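Quick check before the chapter quiz. The format below is the same one you will see on the exam, so make sure you can read both the input and the output lines.
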Amino acid sequence: MNFKLKKISSDASFREFYRLKKGDKTSIIVQANKEKFKNLIAYIVINDVLKKNKIKAPKLISCHYSNNIIEISDLGEKSFYDLVIKKKSKLKDYKSLINLILKL
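Here is the expected output.
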């Protein structure tokens, strides 16, 4: 089976994100070069809390802590910005986003 790995982004932590494509399926590889506990284990715990509160978050697929890597589900390539940029009426989407922020 062919595998493709493409860097997609980093965030304000020491994590790097890659999209792994295996055939027609994708997942996200999260790599932390520093502070493995803070950057991987806490990330998983926070995602679990979000999911328990019915907030969409990636699902843990596999852990490779010794290599500072976890694999999570891919929520897609589109961001909130991508979804609303071409809409004429964005009010409903922004209200949903505000309600989500309040829930957090």
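If your answer matched, good. Residues 36-52 form the longest helix (17 residues).
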